[in-house]
């Protein structure tokens, strides 16, 4: 299955079981170790939301009495109602403020929990590496930051809004049914006719809104992806500023960035056109809703069956019922954005699940004190064969040089030894001893130089004297006084300095087995010789498997193997020690 077909299959699976998969995304937090605090906060927020509905119900009755007092010019009742209103308003304000505050508290707690779980899942089973290599997920940084933030805030906002509107609907439907009376239509008496009018008005409006705005779900999803692609391209320019500047690549980068922004621009215009049509309809819908209840209730008012206060009570109750029934209309844009966010998170999780379930043909086991490779075949992601029938035995203490033409599969073999390359078949037994890999381009985390040297261990793992010693051994004396300086070392240091720092890391870590992939390609031969000799002298008994092209490396290895025409061959000559 190619990449596009795989992505399509994942997306189809996501859409086919959307609700059940979203439910599985929502529920774990509410069953987690934080469930007591989470449910306490949620129930408190729901309770405060119900208080706001109760305030609205009370105000509906107050509205009737207030307008009746105005109609009858009853000053005492007017003053009493104003004072009563002030007291209830204080309660409503306090409840509203704490509802917002506690909702934000619940949102950030839920986001923190979800983010930590997704961090762990993304970093587990080498998902971050495999997804990047196969390109099956775009912009995982967006999924882990913006999408999780939007998911938690929008889920709570929409969920609490739905509950609040449902309770409001029930409460005001009872009021509206009781005060609206009945109406004769073609000789048929329709009880609670204002309720049915509100229901009809909201259902028609919801259907039209969906017809007009259903494209927003796909467009919102695309907009988020295009925005993330643009941000990623900008970061790429910043990270590779020197190379671009030396190549005078500004015009090319400007064209690339403009193309990325062009997608943002065009998709945003599509969203604007859909939202314009929705705005025309929803604005008209809202304006008509202001007078619609008066029009429907006017016959009973002018016939003297209800007074002004009852008319205003009917109007407000109708407005609340219509507003509750129209929740879908008002929340449609938010629902479209929420659905797009859920789709992105679900597809991200689905790809990670598929990667974890993927059974590689290459079996790597950790045991013994020797490296054994038997009948190993490695393929590219496209299926092209790189290596077939490879066999290799490396005993403890040996130093083996692996050579071959560029693209022959040397680095891929090292990845397979590190259990990073499942494409192929065969058996690999790696020693159960302290192991370290030195790639061609070492990773240096942003932070203090001490932390960059000791990575992935904490910066206080070794003494200051130990750090100074290995820096001196690797010809990095100028960095000794900067051990506690925090910086972006990968930008600050030259490629050769970065590789020397990686050797210093190896001397600190003191592995029993060291795998090096072109680890001295950016150094001159003198530095290369000094650092290899430092490894041999300072780490007695060290086993090395080095990938390299230079003939100068031969003297530091006890034997040499070469990949030639897809075969792993042992060279007949003996390499000097």
Outline:
The protein has 577 residues and is of the alpha/beta class. It is 64% helix and 13% strand. The protein has helices spanning 3-16, 18-30, 35-71, 75-123, 127-134, 140-180, 193-213, 216-239, 241-246, 250-302, 308-325, 327-330, 332-357, 410-417, 449-454, 464-473, 489-492, 495-509, 525-538; strands at 182-185, 188-191, 362-366, 371-379, 385-394, 399-404, 424-430, 435-438, 447-448, 486-487, 513-517, 543-547, 559-564, 567-570.
Report on this model:
The structure is a single chain. The protein is α/β, with parallel strands linked by helices and 577 residues long. It has two domains: 3-357, Up-down Bundle (ABC transporter transmembrane region fold); 362-570, Rossmann fold. Helix content is 64%, strand content 13%. The protein has 19 helices and 14 strands. The chain has helices at 3-16, 18-30, 35-71, 75-123, 127-134, 140-180, 193-213, 216-239, 241-246, 250-302, 308-325, 327-330, 332-357, 410-417, 449-454, 464-473, 489-492, 495-509, 525-538; strands at residues 182-185, 188-191, 362-366, 371-379, 385-394, 399-404, 424-430, 435-438, 447-448, 486-487, 513-517, 543-547, 559-564, 567-570. The longest helix has 53 residues, at 250-302. It is elongated and about 110 Å long. Mean pLDDT is 83; it is low at 1-14.
